[in-house]
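Weekly structure sync, notes
Attendees: PL (lead), two postdocs, one rotation student
Agenda item 3: pending single-chain targets
PL asked that the sequence for the first pending target be pasted directly into the notes so everyone works from the same version. It is reproduced below exactly as submitted, 128 residues in total.
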Amino acid sequence: MSPEHKEALAAGREQSRAVKRYLEALDAHKPRRGRKRTKDSIQKQLEGIEAKLSGSDPLTRLNLLQERADLQAELNTEESGIDISALEDDFIRVARGYGERKGISYSVWREVGVESAVLKKAGITRGT
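Predicted structure, written out during the meeting:
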């Protein structure tokens, strides 16, 4: 393999990582229907689960423990506060080249949740 080929492969891997991270962050932070959960509401739900655990049958306990784990994971994600702006900057830097190389159209980018303003900054338009 030539050095140019190795460099091209490394660039492709870097582009793929940047696109994947951004799309995962978008997916994790997309708005959900209904009332927005707050830290306090999650804590109240956790307290309710703890109260129900002691007198529950094994199957109910199984479901309550899973619900508790899901709520704790949601609470941890909320507290960690992913910096989506840094991921967005990386995405903007590589998205056009990645999309051209993979044949990804504007409409497909939009369908996975990438905002039109972000695509514009990346140089991806409806005609490209």
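Discussion points:
- The chain has two domains: 1-29+83-128, 33-81.
- The CA atoms of residues 7 and 13 lie 10 Å apart.
Action: rotation student to compare against the earlier draft before next sync.
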